[in-house]
Amino acid sequence: MSKKSDQNNAEPQIPLRLKNHLEALGGLSLTRYKKWCKENQFEFATHKTHTQLQEELAVFRQNKTRKKRFLKLDKYIRQFIVDACDNKLIVDQISRPIWRAFFEKIVNSNPHVEFRESLKQLLLRVEQVAGFLTEEIEFGNQRALYVEALIRMNDRKGQWLRPVAEWSPKSHNSRKQFSSLARHLFAQYPLPVFMDFAWLEAGKGAYTHRDWFIHLAVGKNIRTAKTPTKLTKKMSHYFVQAPDDYLPEEAIRWGQIHALGGDKRLTEAILGTPIGTEFGNDAFWRSVILFFIENPFIERQQVGPIIDYINHQKYLTQENVVGPGVVEIAEPPQPNFSMRKRNPNTLLRLVSEWHNNLSKKTVAQNLYFRKSGINEYISKPSKNQKRVWRIIELLSGYALIREGDIMHHCIATYANACAAGKCSIWSMMFEDEQGKKKLLTIEVNRDKLIVEARGKYNRWPNSKEFRRLKDWAKKEDLKINKYIKIVNE
Length: 489
Known about the structure:
The chain is of the alpha+beta class.
């Protein structure tokens, strides 16, 4: 190599003062120093004053000390809680995701001094006597950090009945410890375990559910709370008996169905439908529930398709193509649809005919959908088995119609929802030397929840199919509706 080439590749001359400074910063190269300056919001230059270099050195030592503390986060957790509540914590410097998420919740909470001081005492007490402070919990189809619930409890401090300093849990179980704390702070009377989820919820209606918790905790009846449907004395009796893993509005539906004479199987079949926790037009839907109760021999797997059909006939507007690119909006086919004197066999025949007629709809055929952003699933074939499992996204109305024809269900009715980005539809199949075989049709909503998974004639997944569904969900960070059942096949 020539001398000229060597000179071109040589490092630029670095002043002695800067060389010594780079050594003090941990032996940085000039290139790394430039990046360090950008990361710490200093101007990059090879000639700096003594004061500038001292400022940089002070920041370097401060970061180094903080990094050592972060490496032993468990040991310093109490100090970090204090720093977070006092706005002295730099969350971006925490590398572990779960810890970063934990402290972000604190840092982003109500900045008022009194709120933060109260929150600090609550968090420090929980850290001192319990084990759930930094843990995450899954409930229903949701996931949350316990600290989110603690922040919401602190927001209701004016309704606390006892000081947090007097609380000590008797159990080592995180779920029971959290339940114990909620009752220590708010409860004079016993209340159902499922009401604890009110503090963990963040979605629509969550604030109202927390009102229900306090309402019940001071001895009032759920009938006098602001519920989405009017409850009878019998419904309120069954409401408090709902399973521990139910969400509050699921418990409302549980109470309603059981008071009308239904059972757990019917309740969970209905909870898996669009009317599960939606109480609009509840007087009519109550008549539908009574119809199922009065006709117990209707297979519970038919509950969803029947509700889809009734909803389509009575409430959903229709889109009809009347010319090239021209869509006409029509009223629902049967806005006066009633359950009065309905024959179950006739209704099932109408539902079946409706499903079959969906393939003739031209609107769905003309629709195309954007990809959801969720990756498709392809299994790795084993040495002894050449079968490959696939879960692929259906991206057109025509594909939904074909899926419905093969699987004998009503998935084509989801075409407009897919086009609007409200959900995505997927097909599970396996391939081997003999070709492809469709197994399940899967609905995923915009919150990445697998809402539904059904096989031919609306059967539930078998254990092998469910295992593949869980594998896909884990890889894509999807949640699975707890009302998806497994059949033994």
